Amino acid sequence: MTAPQRLTDRKREAIIQAAIAEFRANGFDITSMDKIAATAGVSKRTVYNHFPSKEELFAEILNQLWARVTAEQETSYHHDQPLREQMRLMLKAKLQMLGDDNFLDLARVAIAATIHSPERAQNMVARMGAREEGLTVWIRAAQADGRLKQVAPEFAAQQIQGMLKSFAFWPQISMGLPALSEEMQNTVVESALDMFLACYQC
C-alpha cells in the first residue's frame, strides 16, 4: 500500500472516530459535518470526500457495529464434540465483544439515533436481518444432527443471547455499569448454558 493510501485510511478512521464521539455527545440531529471535521482534524471537504452525507457516515458506523457483532460468530458445528463445550466458546466470545469499549460506543450511538428516527431503526434491522448470525446457523446444524429439539433456530439464538445481554449489555448501555468480571462472565455463561440445554437438548 502506498503512503497516500495509508494517509487516506488514517483520515477515514479519524473521521469515523470523531463522528462516534460527536454522535455520543450531541446526538445524531445536532451533530454537524463541520464539527466532525474539526474534531477529526481534517477539512470539511475531506469528510465529504469519504462520506457524501451525515446519513452515510452514520451508516458506516452501523456497518462497523454489525461487523463487530458478527465477527465472533463464525464457529462451525462439530458433530463429534459436546454441545456445551462448543456453545461455551461462542458465548464467551460474545461476552468479550459485548464488553469491548469501542463496541459499546458504537452501540450507544446506534441506539440513541434510532430512538429518535424509527425509519432509521427499520433500515438498521433490515440490514442486520439480511445476514444470519453464526449461532443461528450452529443451532440449525445441531438440530439437523438430532442433538437439539426442533424449535425456530432464530428464536433459540435470540433467547440465549438475550440471557447474556441482560447482564453484559443493557446494564452497561442504560446505566453505565462496568463490564463484567471474568468470574461473573463465567457464571452468566454457565447459567445460560444450563437453561438452554435443559430446554432444547435431545
Summed up, the domain count is 2
- Gross morphology: elongated
Q: And the CATH topology of the largest domain?
A: Tetracycline Repressor, domain 2
Strand coverage percent? under 5%
The named CATH superfamily of the largest domain: Tetracycline Repressor, domain 2
SSE inventory with pairings:
Layout (H helix, E strand, L loop, with lengths): L2 H28 L2 H8 L3 H7 L3 H18 L11 H16 L2 H16 L1 H12 L4 H11 L8 H16 L1 H6 L6 H19 L2
Helix pairs in contact: 1-2, 1-4, 1-6, 2-3, 4-6, 5-9, 5-11, 6-7, 8-9, 9-11
Summarize the structure.
The chain is 78% helix and 0% strand. It is an all-alpha fold.
Question: What would you say this structure looks like, in words?
Answer:
GO terms for molecular function: DNA-binding transcription factor activity; transcription cis-regulatory region binding. The protein is mostly helical and 202 residues long. It has two domains: 52 residues, Arc Repressor Mutant, subunit A, CATH 1.10.10.60; 148 residues, Tetracycline Repressor, domain 2, CATH 1.10.357. Helix content is 78%, strand content 0%. Helix 1 crosses helix 2 and helix 8 crosses helix 9. The longest helix has 28 residues. The mean pLDDT is 87.
Features:
202 residues, mainly alpha, Arc Repressor Mutant, subunit A, Tetracycline Repressor, domain 2, 11 helices
